[in-house]
Automatic annotation (TrEMBL), chain A:
It comes from Paenibacillus spongiae. Residues 32-132 form the Nucleoside transporter/FeoB GTPase Gate domain. It comes from the Bacteria. The chain crosses the membrane at residues 30-48, 141-161. InterPro entries: Gate_dom, SpmB. The keyword Transmembrane applies. PANTHER family: INNER MEMBRANE PROTEIN YJIG. Keywords: Membrane, Transmembrane, Transmembrane helix. This is Spore maturation protein.
TrEMBL record, chain B:
The chain crosses the membrane at residues 6-25, 37-58, 128-153, 165-183. Pfam families: Gate. This is Nucleoside recognition protein. The keyword Cytoplasm does not apply. It comes from the Bacteria. Keywords: Membrane, Transmembrane, Transmembrane helix. It comes from Paenibacillus spongiae.
Amino acid sequence: MIVFIPLYAAFRKVPVYETFLEGAKGGFDTAINIIPHLVGMMVAISMFRASGAMDMLSGLIRPLFDYFGVPSEVLPLGMLRPLTGAGSLAFTTELIKTYGPDSMIGRIASTIQGSTDTTLYVLTVYFGAVGIRRSRYALKVGLFSDLVGFVAAIIICLFVFG
Amino acid sequence: MVNWIWLFFIVASFIAAALTGRMEALTEAAFEGAKSGVTVSLGLISVMVFWLGLMRIAEDGGLLSKLASLLQPVVRFLFPDVPKGHPALGYIMSNMSANILGLGNAATPMGIKAMQELQSLNPDKSTATPAMCTLLALNTSSITLVPTTLIAIRMTYSSAHPAEIVGTTLAATLIATAAAILADRWYRSRSGPPNWKDHSGKGNRSTTERPETSLTLTGGRAGPAASVDGGLTAGGGKGEAVV
């Protein structure tokens, strides 16, 4: 891709390097514009985890998991996943390290991590870059699909590997 | 809604920290978070600069419009209110392709570019349009064909079958994406297009100017460049507040 795009464009008589610089400039501005948005979000998420509020919340939902025979170790991952990509990846790695990649927990964690994205980050970055303040129903849709993905990942893993 | 979630995080953290006696850790975490926010943004610079440079070449070379016309049917279904042949469609397509191929690094700049193009069609620059919400829904659920990072981690911890989660991941991601599209459709039909009202207004310039008939993009400088600048200035001018 890195070679093909410039080659193809050069063939079409595009001044490739100048064009590259033109586009690249926009990238710098965009990345800088995102900083306040990301700082705001990261602060809130970081506080939420460090204060123990996250643990309390997952303690509330845990009985439901036990009832269905789902390993509750993956629960914090489901809550972490939409909030922080790096954090949930670290948590997944931790689960895989502790319980083994081929354990049910390891498999479910891998599937959850692989099948959804960091909704809050995506929203912050994408809408932050264009200055959207009222996101309407976008967050609801994102979180809903995260929840569906989370549940689907558990059910599918229990079914396939169970 | 983001406002409320943000406030909830802060207040809940404060209460939880007070209960568990982790007040010091809370302050520390706040600054830690701020730091990582800046680190992530700065880390994005290299990727954004490089990919957007490359994508501009692709745009000028006519590759983006090719891609857009190729996947036109899918995008037309998902984004019925984006005019045919609009550069946004090309970026949306590249964003989707990069996501599917698991090239997260490449997907973000193109997704942002797509947003900026959609913003040029937006009459109310601070409120998301339905098309923007759809694009976001697609990105937050992100169809993944091969979860490369996960396979690598599983290999590190000596899994017997590191790639055995490809199938389950694909199934889960398809379900999540389908849910996102359905939910998006539902909200779309329920809320209608509220910020579409001032059709003759200033914001709709690009919609009216762009010829409905042209299936393939011209790839010319004037069209895309104009709307890019429009999107950028709009973003810079009004966009300082927290999302």
